[in-house]
Amino acid sequence: MPLYLRLASAILFFCLVLTFLLPSSKAQESPYIVAYDHYMEEPGSLEIEYFSTFGTQRGGNDFHAFWAEVEYGATAWWTTEFYVSGQTTFNDGTIFTGVRWENRLRPLKREHFINPVIYIEYEDINGADKILKEVEGHDVESDYADSNAGLRKEHVHELETKLLLSSNFKGWNFVENTIATKNLSNEPWEFGYAIGASRPLALKASAKRCSFCRQNFIGGLELYGGLGDLYHFGLHDTSHYLAPVAAWNLPSDWTLRLSAGFGLNNSSHRFLLRWGVSREISGFGSMVSKLFRGRR
Amino acid sequence: MKAVSAALVVTAALLYTSLVLAERQTGSPYKHQNDPSLYDELAKAPEKARAKPNPFEKDSDAISAGANLFDQHCAECHGDDARGAKKGPSLLVDQVQNAEPGALFWLLTNGVVRRGMPVWSKLPEPQRWQLVSYIKSLGAGRRKP
């Protein structure tokens, strides 16, 4: 295993240990797995997340792709996030598929009816990446049918930009994300979309702390897919998914998410089952700051 | 490679120990605690927002629910007792306690993003009003003899 991989694994392991041992804060996490709303990570907080995607594959083997995210609230208007991903293709093998560095910037100071966020991500992944964190361009099911050995030969250095729009209305949250991705190795811009709506089961908080109170559960729906590329824009030869999503924000500071995605056309995977677990560590920034500056 | 792994483990252990020790240090008060301009943002609340009444004003459960919400979302920055902590100012001062409930609700909704206060519109509207009920109740408690 290369040194950088060992390093990445060690950092992730360390972060997982931190999730259990350091103080946490209860976050009101959205249930979306593909779409984004306009909320940033709280300043100085570190959120550690693990997600899995199980996907069916026609003409190949089903797979289980997984990724871990470390998300940090640098300021109230800037959140930065680092991803490490891998996958297991059944009857084939398990491989590391790459890293992503994501930044979300909130340009407006106040809340508006529609709230924009600018999203910029750099991806250094290989062709075997199957986390389907977003669907763009002409991504279709048959792209994933080859063996891991064949797929991993392709190296992808991509710059991905998104305009995230999000609104709240009568307890509902609505999001609309447009995606524009440029493979830095002379490929055309590719486009995609993700839209979603969600709502907590209860809007009012209960006077008692409880795990099963209705306000801790958020349900919703995501719809996402590709829109072709610069030269062939449109729905031809693209894949699309509709996914009911749910999140459970536990008083013990953990958030669990579940999503069952259904392919909407013949180019899509028939079924994508996703789940995730996350925990937020409050005051991580000040802990690190104390560590390096000493007590003042 | 064994040496690299050992070095990583030792580094991680040292970093973790240091973080835990750092966390145990008492948090210093908010560095701009005495800056009156800190509360200027409340004055920026539009008239329409100020005029909004708290729908939970007479709901005693709202204060308990607001206390839970405060503990979960606000205490990290403003302190467990709302007297202010390293990242957030006191909420017991007159500027906050004398502010209209609508102005507090407006501030919670919009945050003060450039000064580090996140927007809290991710909490549904009733929960933000419950938080306002709790914050106002702190002032009432303070005025008791």
Biggest interface reads: A-B, 52 and 47 residues
Q: Topology as H/E string of chain A?
A: HEEEEEHEEEEEEEH
CATH superfamily of chain A: monomeric porin ompg
The description of the largest β-sheet of chain A is:
12 strands, antiparallel, barrel
Domain module count of chain B:
1
Helix content of chain A: 10-25%
CATH superfamily of chain B: Cytochrome c-like domain
Uncertain segments of chain A are none
CATH architecture of chain A: Beta Barrel
- The radius of gyration of chain A is 19 Å
Could you explain how this protein is built, in words?
The complex is a heterodimer of chains A (296) and B (145). Chain A has 296 residues and is mostly beta strands. Chain A has one domain: Porin (Beta Barrel). Chain A has a 12-stranded antiparallel barrel with strand order 1-2-3-4-5-6-7-8-9-10-11-12. The longest helix of chain A is centred in the N-terminal third of the chain and has 19 residues. The termini of chain A are far apart. By secondary structure, chain B is mainly α. Chain B has a single domain, classed as Orthogonal Bundle (Cytochrome Bc1 Complex, Chain D, domain 2), CATH 1.10.760.10. Chain B has 8 helices and no strands. In chain B, helix 4 crosses helix 8 and helix 7 crosses helix 8. Chain B is globular and about 65 Å long. The N and C termini of chain B lie far apart (68 Å). At the A-B interface, helix 1 and helix 3 of A face helix 1, helix 4 and helix 8 of B.
Summarize it:
The complex is a heterodimer of chains A (296) and B (145). Chain A has 296 residues and is mainly beta.
SSE topology:
The complex is a heterodimer of chains A (about 300) and B (about 140).
Chain A: H1 3-21, E1 46-55, E2 63-75, E3 78-89, E4 93-105, E5 115-126, H2 148-151, E6 155-169, E7 172-183, E8 190-200, E9 217-229, E10 240-249, E11 254-263, E12 271-281, H3 284-293
Antiparallel strand pairs in A: 1-2, 1-12, 2-3, 3-4, 4-5, 5-6, 6-7, 7-8, 8-9, 9-10, 10-11, 11-12
Chain B: H1 2-24, H2 40-43, H3 47-50, H4 60-73, H5 75-78, H6 94-97, H7 101-110, H8 125-143
